[in-house]
Structure prediction request, 400 residues.
Amino acid sequence: MKILILSNRVPFPQNGGYPIVVRNTILGLVNEGHDVTVFTLNNKKHRISLEDDDDLIRKIRYQTYDINISISAWEFILNLLGRRTYNVDRFYDIGFERLLLTELKNEEYDIIQFEGLFMSAYLPAIRKNSTAKLVYRAHNIEHLIWQRLAEQKSDPIKKTYLNLLAKRIKRYELKYLNNFDAIATLTEQDKQLMLQYQTKVPIQVLPVGIDLSRYKPDYSKTEFPSLFFLGALDWMPNREGVEWFLDNFSRDITDGDLRVKFYVGGRNTPESFDDYEVMGKIFIQGEVDDALEFVNSKSIMVVPLLSGGGMRVKIVEGMAMQKCIITTTLGAEGLNYQNGYHILIADDRQEFYDAIKHCIGDEEFCRRIGLNARRLIEQQHDTNVVTVQFIKFYQQLLQS
Prediction:
């Protein structure tokens, strides 16, 4: 098959959930012998140089286009007063659209895959200029993220603003769902929600796939006990979750019964997080040089997500590294887990406290949870396993 993948962010290197999902999709398809072309926006916020590539780039046709997705204060006010969905609009660029249309005049594709809602801005033009089957890869239900964030706010102004954003994004999202030929979701929960929204096109659950050859746990280099969080802290659900955890557990870690160190790693860490640092107890490390080395060096992963959606790639990676993970029901969404066997679920302060207390006092228990987690990832989230499902999905779509 000849496949064109449209990405709103450069999927190289694997320094976040989105690029991990997109790159491993490309890797799986290439390994199965399919002809893959990738057109990606290279936005100012996450601009990547082609020097930061890997061997996979040389096995595909690859085109990047520089774009600035930042919004001025004036544009923000205009969008707030108007009815436009600026979250999506800022990813639209007429130059990139022209580049796509030129490509479609010169090449015929079987499948064109839109990686996330933000690339849907180019759907109308592509529909008019291609006979390919158009697939929407829903990394999450976008409006649900903003709706859940609003629910966490006590400030009435912030709550009202986030609810406004959620309503606009929902209106846009529902408008476009049935304009694709098919949809791939990461979780069964997202599929069921789309069906509730009267989505008529075929929907297939295709979970996060990872290249397991990259994940090589080494207990000899792991500090036990130790707690850690790793994730992009410019993503609001991550930031608010970690702030909640630090506000609730800093005293227990520094002066209380939880005798354990806590490490926070993640790019774009706000300066305000420095206030949480306590020498020898709580370490705010910012962006780490090697994410997998950082994960391997710690023993217990905490992911206190209170909002967000889709499948948490960092949790999948943590499970692949045989980590004992404590997270919320929301954080574990999409995983086919058994609580207390593959992962530990904690949905309030007391449940987190009890789980941490148990884990830091029982290394054998933590190792057992980590081993069970790794087996689950091998069975259900290996890129090779997920790619077989993807190809079957594409073939059924092309035959319909």
Notes: The chain has two domains: 2-209+382-399, 213-380.
